Amino acid sequence: MKILSALKHAALLAIMIGAVTGCATAPQQEEPQAPTTQEAQAAISEARDAISEAQAAGALWRDTADLVAQAEAAMASGDTARAIELANQARRQAENALAQKRAEEARLAAAAQQQPAESAYTVMRGDTLWGISGKSSVYGNPYKWPLIYKANRDKIRDADLIYPGQRFTIRQDWSAAEADAAIAHARNRGAWSLGVVEPSDMAYLAR
Question: Across the strands, what pairs with 119?
Fold first, then answer.
């Protein structure tokens, strides 16, 4: 009986030692490694590609390029995780901006199909081409006023001077390129000047 008891104690001691040894030799959990510089560079490159595509479509948000610059600065300082975070944020912004631009283009195209090729608008007191163009029943965008000017060049001498009772043709069949040219002219034309035909207006009509 003494021998049996001794064997039991020895077996129990062996189990305890094994458990302690096992705990002592259990593999330590490694700290996660920071992303590599190559991974950060790849994320920045993807962001730049998305920005280029959005910019080509005229849809880029103002602060998106700044995020890429911040990502590059973070990578230069060795913070590759932050660099990837900023680059991914910039890429998502560019992708979202492009998606919104395309959705708006699709909406406008669908709306154009439902509208007649042209309609008419009678000028009221206080009207301007800017104000007329901004009406939702016309173009919904004041910067498209040159389209009214071009469609009614036989009725409008000076784009800054229109009269109550004039009846203007409102075309809805302009191409995207014509609409973009009108917006560009409106943005860069300069100040309004009553009674003077602006040279830039004449150049726009001649195109």
Answer: 170
Write the pLDDT tens digit of every residue in 124-147. Answer: 999 999 999 999 989 999 999 999
The vertex-60 CA angle with 182 and 108, nearest 5°, equals 50
CA distance 40 to 74: 9
Q: Using one digit for the tens of pLDDT, what is the confidence trace for 23-35?
A: 444 556 666 788 9
Q: What is the pTM of this model?
A: 0.45
* Contact (Cβ atoms closer than 8 angstroms) between residue 60 and residue 94: yes
Separation between Cα atoms, residue 135 and residue 93, nearest integer Å: 30
Helix spans in the chain (H):
2-24, 37-56, 64-76, 80-114, 129-134, 145-151, 176-188, 199-206
**Residue 99 half-sphere exposure, CB side, CA atoms within 13 Å?**
6
Strand partners, 170: 119
